[in-house]
Protein backbone atom coordinates (compact mmCIF):
# COMPACT_ATOMS: atom_id res chain seq x y z
CA UNK A 1 0.00 0.00 0.00
CA UNK A 2 1.58 3.17 -1.16
CA UNK A 3 0.42 6.08 0.98
CA UNK A 4 2.12 8.60 -1.31
CA UNK A 5 -0.38 7.83 -4.04
CA UNK A 6 -3.27 9.28 -2.06
CA UNK A 7 -1.21 12.36 -1.17
CA UNK A 8 0.03 13.18 -4.64
CA UNK A 9 -2.90 12.18 -6.78
CA UNK A 10 -5.29 15.14 -6.37
CA UNK A 11 -7.59 13.87 -9.06
CA UNK A 12 -9.03 11.25 -6.74
CA UNK A 13 -12.01 12.43 -4.71
CA UNK A 14 -11.47 10.33 -1.60
CA UNK A 15 -8.68 9.93 0.95
CA UNK A 16 -8.33 6.17 0.96
CA UNK A 17 -6.53 5.98 4.30
CA UNK A 18 -9.38 7.82 6.02
CA UNK A 19 -11.91 5.50 4.42
CA UNK A 20 -9.93 2.45 5.47
CA UNK A 21 -9.89 3.77 9.00
CA UNK A 22 -13.62 4.41 8.71
CA UNK A 23 -14.62 0.93 7.61
CA UNK A 24 -12.05 -0.78 9.82
CA UNK A 25 -13.83 0.58 12.89
CA UNK A 26 -17.00 -1.20 11.84
CA UNK A 27 -17.99 -4.19 13.92
CA UNK A 28 -18.71 -6.16 10.75
CA UNK A 29 -15.05 -6.62 9.77
CA UNK A 30 -13.52 -9.99 10.71
CA UNK A 31 -10.06 -8.81 11.82
CA UNK A 32 -8.24 -5.56 12.73
CA UNK A 33 -5.81 -3.98 10.33
CA UNK A 34 -2.92 -3.75 12.83
CA UNK A 35 -1.31 -6.94 14.18
CA UNK A 36 -1.48 -7.55 17.95
CA UNK A 37 1.58 -7.31 20.17
CA UNK A 38 3.64 -10.52 20.27
CA UNK A 39 3.27 -12.76 23.30
CA UNK A 40 6.33 -13.61 25.42
CA UNK A 41 6.57 -17.23 26.52
CA UNK A 42 9.21 -19.80 27.41
CA UNK A 43 9.86 -22.89 25.38
CA UNK A 44 9.51 -26.17 27.27
CA UNK A 45 12.42 -28.60 27.58
CA UNK A 46 12.94 -30.27 25.26
CA UNK A 47 11.37 -27.91 22.70
CA UNK A 48 8.62 -29.46 20.58
CA UNK A 49 9.30 -30.32 17.00
CA UNK A 50 8.00 -27.71 14.57
CA UNK A 51 5.34 -28.83 12.12
CA UNK A 52 6.56 -29.72 8.67
CA UNK A 53 3.71 -27.88 6.97
CA UNK A 54 4.34 -24.17 6.80
CA UNK A 55 1.60 -21.95 8.25
CA UNK A 56 0.68 -19.03 5.99
CA UNK A 57 0.65 -15.58 7.59
CA UNK A 58 -2.79 -14.35 8.68
CA UNK A 59 -2.07 -10.67 9.36
CA UNK A 60 -0.91 -8.02 6.95
CA UNK A 61 -0.55 -4.26 6.87
CA UNK A 62 -1.93 -4.22 3.35
CA UNK A 63 -5.65 -3.44 3.20
CA UNK A 64 -7.83 -6.36 2.22
CA UNK A 65 -9.35 -6.51 -1.26
CA UNK A 66 -12.73 -5.78 0.28
CA UNK A 67 -11.44 -2.41 1.54
CA UNK A 68 -10.06 -1.53 -1.86
CA UNK A 69 -13.26 -2.59 -3.59
CA UNK A 70 -15.32 -0.55 -1.15
CA UNK A 71 -13.19 2.55 -1.79
CA UNK A 72 -13.56 2.09 -5.54
CA UNK A 73 -17.30 1.63 -5.11
CA UNK A 74 -17.55 4.93 -3.23
CA UNK A 75 -15.39 6.76 -5.77
CA UNK A 76 -17.64 5.62 -8.61
CA UNK A 77 -21.04 6.16 -6.99
CA UNK A 78 -20.93 8.70 -4.15
CA UNK A 79 -20.91 12.40 -5.10
CA UNK A 80 -17.94 14.59 -4.23
CA UNK A 81 -17.84 15.44 -0.54
CA UNK A 82 -17.94 19.19 -1.28
CA UNK A 83 -21.22 18.82 -3.19
CA UNK A 84 -22.71 16.13 -0.98
CA UNK A 85 -26.20 16.96 0.34
CA UNK A 86 -28.65 15.02 2.51
CA UNK A 87 -30.80 14.29 -0.54
CA UNK A 88 -27.88 12.97 -2.61
CA UNK A 89 -26.64 10.92 0.34
CA UNK A 90 -30.08 9.33 0.81
CA UNK A 91 -30.22 8.62 -2.92
CA UNK A 92 -26.85 6.87 -2.74
CA UNK A 93 -27.80 4.85 0.34
CA UNK A 94 -31.21 3.90 -1.07
CA UNK A 95 -30.36 3.08 -4.67
CA UNK A 96 -26.67 2.10 -4.62
CA UNK A 97 -25.56 0.83 -1.23
CA UNK A 98 -28.75 -0.65 0.22
CA UNK A 99 -28.94 -3.64 -2.12
CA UNK A 100 -25.21 -4.27 -2.52
CA UNK A 101 -24.39 -7.88 -1.53
CA UNK A 102 -21.07 -6.98 0.16
CA UNK A 103 -21.24 -3.37 1.33
CA UNK A 104 -24.85 -2.86 2.45
CA UNK A 105 -23.91 -3.06 6.14
CA UNK A 106 -21.55 -0.07 5.78
CA UNK A 107 -24.45 2.38 5.37
CA UNK A 108 -24.30 3.61 8.96
CA UNK A 109 -20.52 4.08 8.72
CA UNK A 110 -20.95 6.22 5.60
CA UNK A 111 -23.76 8.11 7.34
CA UNK A 112 -21.50 8.88 10.31
CA UNK A 113 -18.62 9.83 8.05
CA UNK A 114 -20.81 12.38 6.26
CA UNK A 115 -21.58 14.03 9.61
CA UNK A 116 -17.86 14.78 10.07
CA UNK A 117 -17.64 16.87 6.90
CA UNK A 118 -17.51 20.63 7.38
CA UNK A 119 -19.69 21.25 4.33
CA UNK A 120 -22.38 18.72 5.22
CA UNK A 121 -25.21 18.65 7.73
CA UNK A 122 -27.87 16.00 8.16
CA UNK A 123 -31.52 17.03 8.06
CA UNK A 124 -34.71 15.46 9.39
CA UNK A 125 -35.22 13.40 6.25
CA UNK A 126 -31.78 11.79 6.38
CA UNK A 127 -32.14 11.03 10.09
CA UNK A 128 -35.57 9.49 9.47
CA UNK A 129 -34.34 7.35 6.59
CA UNK A 130 -31.37 6.07 8.56
CA UNK A 131 -33.47 5.29 11.64
CA UNK A 132 -35.95 3.31 9.57
CA UNK A 133 -33.18 1.44 7.79
CA UNK A 134 -31.51 0.46 11.06
CA UNK A 135 -34.85 -0.55 12.55
CA UNK A 136 -35.80 -2.65 9.52
CA UNK A 137 -32.50 -4.57 9.71
CA UNK A 138 -32.71 -5.01 13.52
CA UNK A 139 -29.48 -3.11 14.20
CA UNK A 140 -30.77 -1.82 17.50
CA UNK A 141 -27.41 -0.84 18.99
CA UNK A 142 -26.62 1.38 16.01
CA UNK A 143 -30.16 2.73 16.18
CA UNK A 144 -29.64 3.79 19.78
CA UNK A 145 -26.34 5.47 18.82
CA UNK A 146 -28.14 7.39 16.09
CA UNK A 147 -30.86 8.58 18.47
CA UNK A 148 -28.26 9.59 21.03
CA UNK A 149 -26.52 11.67 18.36
CA UNK A 150 -29.81 13.36 17.45
CA UNK A 151 -30.57 14.11 21.09
CA UNK A 152 -27.10 15.51 21.81
CA UNK A 153 -26.93 17.90 18.85
CA UNK A 154 -28.95 20.94 17.80
CA UNK A 155 -31.97 20.52 15.58
CA UNK A 156 -31.20 20.42 11.84
CA UNK A 157 -33.71 23.24 11.38
CA UNK A 158 -31.48 25.73 13.19
CA UNK A 159 -28.47 25.62 15.49
CA UNK A 160 -30.38 27.52 18.15
CA UNK A 161 -33.29 25.06 18.30
CA UNK A 162 -33.08 22.14 20.67
CA UNK A 163 -36.81 21.29 20.71
CA UNK A 164 -38.54 20.50 17.43
CA UNK A 165 -41.78 18.64 16.69
CA UNK A 166 -40.25 17.26 13.48
CA UNK A 167 -38.15 14.91 15.58
CA UNK A 168 -41.19 12.87 16.61
CA UNK A 169 -41.40 10.67 13.45
CA UNK A 170 -37.72 9.75 13.84
CA UNK A 171 -38.18 8.57 17.40
CA UNK A 172 -41.57 7.02 16.73
CA UNK A 173 -40.21 4.65 14.10
CA UNK A 174 -37.49 3.64 16.55
CA UNK A 175 -39.95 3.06 19.39
CA UNK A 176 -42.10 0.94 17.10
CA UNK A 177 -39.07 -1.17 16.15
CA UNK A 178 -38.04 -1.69 19.77
CA UNK A 179 -41.60 -2.67 20.69
CA UNK A 180 -41.81 -5.17 17.86
CA UNK A 181 -38.55 -6.72 19.04
CA UNK A 182 -39.77 -6.89 22.63
CA UNK A 183 -37.09 -4.46 23.87
CA UNK A 184 -39.49 -2.46 26.01
CA UNK A 185 -36.83 -0.90 28.25
CA UNK A 186 -35.20 0.70 25.22
CA UNK A 187 -38.61 1.69 23.85
CA UNK A 188 -39.52 3.51 27.06
CA UNK A 189 -36.10 5.18 27.23
CA UNK A 190 -36.40 6.44 23.65
CA UNK A 191 -39.96 7.61 24.36
CA UNK A 192 -38.84 9.65 27.37
CA UNK A 193 -35.93 11.10 25.40
CA UNK A 194 -38.21 12.15 22.57
CA UNK A 195 -40.70 13.64 25.01
CA UNK A 196 -38.01 15.98 26.30
CA UNK A 197 -36.95 17.00 22.81
CA UNK A 198 -40.21 17.87 21.07
CA UNK A 199 -42.11 21.06 21.64
CA UNK A 200 -45.40 19.91 23.15
CA UNK A 201 -47.10 16.65 24.05
CA UNK A 202 -46.48 13.53 21.96
CA UNK A 203 -49.19 12.32 19.66
CA UNK A 204 -51.58 9.83 21.26
CA UNK A 205 -50.45 7.29 18.67
CA UNK A 206 -47.01 7.39 20.25
CA UNK A 207 -48.49 6.37 23.59
CA UNK A 208 -50.48 3.64 21.86
CA UNK A 209 -47.32 2.21 20.30
CA UNK A 210 -45.64 1.77 23.67
CA UNK A 211 -48.80 0.41 25.26
CA UNK A 212 -49.29 -2.10 22.46
CA UNK A 213 -45.70 -3.22 22.92
CA UNK A 214 -46.37 -4.02 26.56
CA UNK A 215 -49.54 -5.92 25.66
CA UNK A 216 -47.83 -8.03 23.00
CA UNK A 217 -44.97 -8.82 25.37
CA UNK A 218 -47.52 -10.10 27.87
CA UNK A 219 -46.96 -7.39 30.49
CA UNK A 220 -50.48 -6.12 31.05
CA UNK A 221 -49.63 -4.47 34.37
CA UNK A 222 -47.09 -2.14 32.74
CA UNK A 223 -49.57 -1.41 29.96
CA UNK A 224 -52.12 -0.28 32.54
CA UNK A 225 -49.54 1.84 34.35
CA UNK A 226 -48.64 3.49 31.07
CA UNK A 227 -52.35 4.10 30.44
CA UNK A 228 -52.59 5.88 33.79
CA UNK A 229 -49.51 7.89 32.87
CA UNK A 230 -51.38 9.11 29.80
CA UNK A 231 -54.04 10.58 32.07
CA UNK A 232 -51.47 12.30 34.25
CA UNK A 233 -49.79 13.81 31.20
CA UNK A 234 -53.19 14.90 29.85
CA UNK A 235 -52.98 12.78 26.73
CA UNK A 236 -56.54 11.96 25.70
CA UNK A 237 -56.97 8.27 24.81
CA UNK A 238 -58.64 7.39 21.53
CA UNK A 239 -60.42 4.30 20.28
CA UNK A 240 -57.09 2.61 19.46
CA UNK A 241 -56.00 3.05 23.08
CA UNK A 242 -59.05 1.21 24.35
CA UNK A 243 -58.78 -1.46 21.66
CA UNK A 244 -55.21 -2.21 22.75
CA UNK A 245 -56.23 -2.61 26.38
CA UNK A 246 -59.29 -4.69 25.47
CA UNK A 247 -57.02 -6.95 23.44
CA UNK A 248 -54.69 -7.26 26.43
CA UNK A 249 -57.53 -8.25 28.73
CA UNK A 250 -58.80 -10.82 26.21
CA UNK A 251 -55.32 -12.30 25.83
CA UNK A 252 -55.21 -12.63 29.61
CA UNK A 253 -58.70 -14.22 29.68
CA UNK A 254 -60.01 -11.30 31.77
CA UNK A 255 -63.22 -10.86 29.81
CA UNK A 256 -65.12 -9.13 32.60
CA UNK A 257 -62.51 -6.39 32.75
CA UNK A 258 -62.52 -6.18 28.96
CA UNK A 259 -66.28 -5.61 29.00
CA UNK A 260 -65.92 -3.02 31.79
CA UNK A 261 -63.37 -1.15 29.69
CA UNK A 262 -65.66 -1.47 26.67
CA UNK A 263 -68.42 0.29 28.63
CA UNK A 264 -65.95 2.84 30.00
CA UNK A 265 -64.95 3.98 26.54
CA UNK A 266 -68.61 4.73 25.80
CA UNK A 267 -68.88 6.84 28.96
CA UNK A 268 -65.79 8.80 27.95
CA UNK A 269 -67.36 9.68 24.62
CA UNK A 270 -65.23 7.30 22.58
CA UNK A 271 -67.43 5.26 20.26
CA UNK A 272 -66.26 1.67 19.70
CA UNK A 273 -65.42 0.72 16.14
CA UNK A 274 -65.38 -2.58 14.30
CA UNK A 275 -61.92 -3.39 15.72
CA UNK A 276 -63.31 -3.07 19.25
CA UNK A 277 -66.04 -5.59 18.53
CA UNK A 278 -63.75 -7.91 16.57
CA UNK A 279 -61.29 -7.98 19.46
CA UNK A 280 -63.98 -8.96 21.95
CA UNK A 281 -65.60 -11.49 19.61
CA UNK A 282 -62.25 -13.12 18.84
CA UNK A 283 -61.45 -13.27 22.54
CA UNK A 284 -64.76 -14.88 23.43
CA UNK A 285 -64.70 -17.44 20.63
CA UNK A 286 -61.04 -18.23 21.22
CA UNK A 287 -61.89 -19.34 24.75
CA UNK A 288 -64.98 -21.30 23.73
CA UNK A 289 -67.49 -18.65 24.85
CA UNK A 290 -69.64 -19.02 21.75
CA UNK A 291 -72.86 -17.47 23.05
CA UNK A 292 -71.06 -14.38 24.35
CA UNK A 293 -69.27 -13.90 21.03
CA UNK A 294 -72.45 -14.23 18.96
CA UNK A 295 -74.27 -11.90 21.36
CA UNK A 296 -71.56 -9.29 20.87
CA UNK A 297 -72.01 -9.63 17.10
CA UNK A 298 -75.72 -8.88 17.35
CA UNK A 299 -74.92 -5.93 19.61
CA UNK A 300 -72.91 -4.60 16.70
CA UNK A 301 -76.04 -4.82 14.56
CA UNK A 302 -78.12 -2.97 17.14
CA UNK A 303 -75.57 -0.17 17.47
CA UNK A 304 -75.33 0.21 13.70
CA UNK A 305 -71.64 -0.69 13.57
CA UNK A 306 -70.71 -1.94 10.13
CA UNK A 307 -69.63 -5.56 9.85
CA UNK A 308 -66.31 -6.25 8.18
CA UNK A 309 -65.09 -9.33 6.35
CA UNK A 310 -62.86 -10.03 9.35
CA UNK A 311 -65.89 -9.98 11.68
CA UNK A 312 -67.67 -12.66 9.66
CA UNK A 313 -64.54 -14.77 9.34
CA UNK A 314 -63.96 -14.62 13.11
CA UNK A 315 -67.54 -15.73 13.79
CA UNK A 316 -67.61 -18.50 11.18
CA UNK A 317 -64.18 -19.88 12.09
CA UNK A 318 -64.99 -19.81 15.80
CA UNK A 319 -68.25 -21.72 15.33
CA UNK A 320 -66.67 -24.24 12.96
CA UNK A 321 -63.84 -24.94 15.39
CA UNK A 322 -66.45 -25.95 17.93
CA UNK A 323 -68.14 -28.25 15.38
CA UNK A 324 -71.17 -25.98 14.97
CA UNK A 325 -71.16 -25.73 11.19
CA UNK A 326 -74.95 -25.56 10.97
CA UNK A 327 -75.01 -22.64 13.39
CA UNK A 328 -72.36 -20.89 11.33
CA UNK A 329 -74.41 -21.21 8.14
CA UNK A 330 -77.53 -20.09 9.99
CA UNK A 331 -75.70 -17.02 11.28
CA UNK A 332 -74.55 -16.13 7.76
CA UNK A 333 -78.11 -16.50 6.45
CA UNK A 334 -79.49 -14.31 9.24
CA UNK A 335 -76.88 -11.61 8.72
CA UNK A 336 -77.60 -11.67 4.99
CA UNK A 337 -81.31 -11.19 5.62
CA UNK A 338 -80.56 -8.27 7.93
CA UNK A 339 -78.50 -6.68 5.12
CA UNK A 340 -75.40 -6.41 7.33
CA UNK A 341 -73.27 -9.10 5.72
CA UNK A 342 -70.33 -7.39 3.95
CA UNK A 343 -70.31 -7.89 0.18
CA UNK A 344 -66.70 -9.09 0.23
CA UNK A 345 -67.35 -12.01 2.57
CA UNK A 346 -66.15 -15.30 1.07
CA UNK A 347 -68.32 -18.25 2.07
CA UNK A 348 -66.18 -20.79 0.22
CA UNK A 349 -64.59 -22.16 3.38
CA UNK A 350 -67.94 -22.64 5.06
CA UNK A 351 -69.39 -24.37 1.98
CA UNK A 352 -66.41 -26.72 1.96
CA UNK A 353 -66.96 -27.63 5.62
CA UNK A 354 -70.67 -28.23 5.03
CA UNK A 355 -69.97 -30.48 2.06
CA UNK A 356 -67.28 -32.28 4.06
CA UNK A 357 -69.92 -33.16 6.66
CA UNK A 358 -72.33 -34.35 3.94
CA UNK A 359 -74.51 -31.25 4.36
CA UNK A 360 -74.42 -30.00 0.79
CA UNK A 361 -78.15 -29.24 0.87
CA UNK A 362 -77.57 -26.84 3.76
CA UNK A 363 -74.76 -25.24 1.81
CA UNK A 364 -77.02 -24.82 -1.20
CA UNK A 365 -79.66 -23.19 0.99
CA UNK A 366 -77.10 -20.69 2.29
CA UNK A 367 -75.65 -19.88 -1.13
CA UNK A 368 -79.07 -19.37 -2.70
CA UNK A 369 -80.06 -17.09 0.19
CA UNK A 370 -76.97 -14.99 -0.44
CA UNK A 371 -77.79 -14.91 -4.14
CA UNK A 372 -81.36 -13.84 -3.42
CA UNK A 373 -80.15 -10.95 -1.25
CA UNK A 374 -77.87 -9.63 -3.98
CA UNK A 375 -74.62 -11.15 -2.73
CA UNK A 376 -73.07 -13.27 -5.46
CA UNK A 377 -70.92 -16.08 -4.05
CA UNK A 378 -67.46 -16.67 -5.40
CA UNK A 379 -66.69 -19.20 -8.12
CA UNK A 380 -64.80 -21.49 -5.73
CA UNK A 381 -67.79 -21.68 -3.40
CA UNK A 382 -70.09 -22.56 -6.30
CA UNK A 383 -67.87 -25.25 -7.79
CA UNK A 384 -67.30 -26.71 -4.32
CA UNK A 385 -71.06 -26.86 -3.82
CA UNK A 386 -71.59 -28.57 -7.20
CA UNK A 387 -68.99 -31.16 -6.26
CA UNK A 388 -70.61 -31.69 -2.87
CA UNK A 389 -74.07 -32.12 -4.36
CA UNK A 390 -72.75 -34.52 -6.96
CA UNK A 391 -70.97 -36.70 -4.40
CA UNK A 392 -74.04 -36.79 -2.16
CA UNK A 393 -76.11 -38.16 -5.04
CA UNK A 394 -78.12 -34.97 -5.66
CA UNK A 395 -77.35 -34.91 -9.36
CA UNK A 396 -80.48 -33.04 -10.33
CA UNK A 397 -79.74 -30.25 -7.82
CA UNK A 398 -76.14 -30.13 -8.97
CA UNK A 399 -77.25 -29.83 -12.59
CA UNK A 400 -79.73 -27.07 -11.77
CA UNK A 401 -77.17 -25.14 -9.74
CA UNK A 402 -74.60 -25.49 -12.52
CA UNK A 403 -77.10 -24.06 -14.98
CA UNK A 404 -77.78 -21.14 -12.65
CA UNK A 405 -74.06 -20.51 -12.31
CA UNK A 406 -73.54 -20.29 -16.04
CA UNK A 407 -76.57 -18.05 -16.51
CA UNK A 408 -74.93 -15.69 -14.00
CA UNK A 409 -71.73 -15.71 -16.05
CA UNK A 410 -69.76 -18.06 -13.77
CA UNK A 411 -67.99 -20.76 -15.78
CA UNK A 412 -66.81 -23.90 -13.94
CA UNK A 413 -63.53 -25.68 -14.40
CA UNK A 414 -63.41 -28.51 -16.92
CA UNK A 415 -62.94 -31.26 -14.30
CA UNK A 416 -66.06 -30.35 -12.31
CA UNK A 417 -68.06 -29.86 -15.49
CA UNK A 418 -67.06 -33.18 -17.05
CA UNK A 419 -67.68 -35.13 -13.84
CA UNK A 420 -71.19 -33.70 -13.62
CA UNK A 421 -71.85 -34.64 -17.26
CA UNK A 422 -70.63 -38.17 -16.56
CA UNK A 423 -72.99 -38.50 -13.59
CA UNK A 424 -75.90 -37.31 -15.71
CA UNK A 425 -75.02 -39.78 -18.46
CA UNK A 426 -74.75 -42.59 -15.92
CA UNK A 427 -78.30 -41.69 -14.86
CA UNK A 428 -79.55 -42.00 -18.47
CA UNK A 429 -79.84 -38.21 -18.74
CA UNK A 430 -77.51 -37.67 -21.68
CA UNK A 431 -79.93 -35.20 -23.25
CA UNK A 432 -79.74 -32.98 -20.15
CA UNK A 433 -75.98 -33.32 -20.12
CA UNK A 434 -75.74 -32.24 -23.75
CA UNK A 435 -78.05 -29.31 -23.04
CA UNK A 436 -75.61 -28.15 -20.34
CA UNK A 437 -72.79 -28.47 -22.86
CA UNK A 438 -74.60 -26.26 -25.36
CA UNK A 439 -75.36 -23.66 -22.67
CA UNK A 440 -71.75 -23.66 -21.51
CA UNK A 441 -70.54 -23.23 -25.09
CA UNK A 442 -72.77 -20.18 -25.53
CA UNK A 443 -71.34 -18.68 -22.33
CA UNK A 444 -67.77 -19.08 -23.54
CA UNK A 445 -66.78 -22.40 -21.99
CA UNK A 446 -64.16 -24.26 -24.04
CA UNK A 447 -64.85 -27.99 -24.20
CA UNK A 448 -62.11 -30.56 -24.32
CA UNK A 449 -61.98 -34.10 -25.69
CA UNK A 450 -63.19 -35.55 -22.39
CA UNK A 451 -66.45 -33.62 -22.63
CA UNK A 452 -67.26 -35.17 -26.01
CA UNK A 453 -66.16 -38.68 -25.04
CA UNK A 454 -68.43 -38.55 -21.97
CA UNK A 455 -71.44 -37.48 -24.02
CA UNK A 456 -70.80 -39.95 -26.85
CA UNK A 457 -70.50 -42.70 -24.27
CA UNK A 458 -73.80 -41.62 -22.74
CA UNK A 459 -75.61 -41.52 -26.08
CA UNK A 460 -74.18 -44.92 -26.97
CA UNK A 461 -75.42 -46.36 -23.72
CA UNK A 462 -78.92 -44.99 -24.34
CA UNK A 463 -78.94 -46.05 -27.98
CA UNK A 464 -79.21 -42.47 -29.28
CA UNK A 465 -77.33 -42.89 -32.54
CA UNK A 466 -78.36 -39.63 -34.17
CA UNK A 467 -77.32 -37.39 -31.27
CA UNK A 468 -74.07 -39.30 -30.84
CA UNK A 469 -73.11 -39.02 -34.51
CA UNK A 470 -73.57 -35.24 -34.36
CA UNK A 471 -71.02 -35.06 -31.56
CA UNK A 472 -68.57 -37.41 -33.28
CA UNK A 473 -68.68 -35.34 -36.46
CA UNK A 474 -68.19 -32.20 -34.37
CA UNK A 475 -65.14 -33.81 -32.80
CA UNK A 476 -63.81 -34.55 -36.27
CA UNK A 477 -64.33 -30.95 -37.35
CA UNK A 478 -62.50 -29.68 -34.24
CA UNK A 479 -59.51 -32.03 -34.73
CA UNK A 480 -60.26 -33.85 -31.47
CA UNK A 481 -59.90 -37.35 -32.95
CA UNK A 482 -56.40 -38.78 -33.16
CA UNK A 483 -57.04 -40.97 -36.21
CA UNK A 484 -59.71 -42.43 -38.47
CA UNK A 485 -59.71 -45.66 -36.49
CA UNK A 486 -61.08 -43.82 -33.42
CA UNK A 487 -63.74 -42.20 -35.58
CA UNK A 488 -64.86 -45.55 -36.98
CA UNK A 489 -64.83 -47.14 -33.52
CA UNK A 490 -67.14 -44.46 -32.10
CA UNK A 491 -69.50 -44.62 -35.06
CA UNK A 492 -69.59 -48.41 -34.94
CA UNK A 493 -70.41 -48.32 -31.23
CA UNK A 494 -73.33 -45.97 -31.83
CA UNK A 495 -74.68 -48.13 -34.67
CA UNK A 496 -74.46 -51.36 -32.70
CA UNK A 497 -76.06 -49.78 -29.63
CA UNK A 498 -78.93 -48.40 -31.70
CA UNK A 499 -79.44 -51.82 -33.26
CA UNK A 500 -79.41 -53.48 -29.84
CA UNK A 501 -76.64 -55.92 -30.76
CA UNK A 502 -75.11 -55.85 -27.25
CA UNK A 503 -76.34 -54.96 -23.77
CA UNK A 504 -76.29 -51.28 -22.94
CA UNK A 505 -74.55 -51.94 -19.61
CA UNK A 506 -71.43 -53.00 -21.51
CA UNK A 507 -71.12 -49.67 -23.30
CA UNK A 508 -68.23 -47.72 -21.79
CA UNK A 509 -66.08 -45.59 -24.05
CA UNK A 510 -64.47 -43.53 -21.29
UniProtKB/TrEMBL annotation:
Keywords: Repeat. PPR repeats lie at residues 203-237, 238-272, 273-307, 308-342, 378-412, 448-482. PROSITE patterns: PPR (PS51375). InterPro entries: Mito_RNA-Proc/Resp, PPR_rpt, TPR-like_helical_dom_sf. GO terms for molecular function: mRNA binding. Pfam families: PPR (PF01535), PPR_2 (PF13041). It comes from the Eukaryota. Belongs to the PPR family. P subfamily. This is Pentatricopeptide repeat-containing protein. It comes from Noccaea caerulescens. The lineage of its organism: Eukaryota, Viridiplantae, Streptophyta, Embryophyta, Tracheophyta.
Amino acid sequence: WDFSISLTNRVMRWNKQNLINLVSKSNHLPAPLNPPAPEIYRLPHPPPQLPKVSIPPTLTLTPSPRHSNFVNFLENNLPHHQTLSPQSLIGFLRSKLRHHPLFAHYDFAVFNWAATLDTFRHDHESFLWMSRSLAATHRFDDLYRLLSFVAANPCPCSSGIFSCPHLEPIFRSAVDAYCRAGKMDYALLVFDTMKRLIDGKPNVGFYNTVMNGYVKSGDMDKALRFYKRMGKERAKPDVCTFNILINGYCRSSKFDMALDLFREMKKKGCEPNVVSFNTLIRGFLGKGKIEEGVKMAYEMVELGCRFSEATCEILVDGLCREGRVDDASGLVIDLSRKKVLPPGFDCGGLVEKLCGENKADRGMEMVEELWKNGQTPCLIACTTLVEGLRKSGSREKASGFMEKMMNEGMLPDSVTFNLLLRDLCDSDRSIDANRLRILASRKGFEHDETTYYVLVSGFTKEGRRKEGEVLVNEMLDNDMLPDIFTYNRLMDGLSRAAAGNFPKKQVRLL
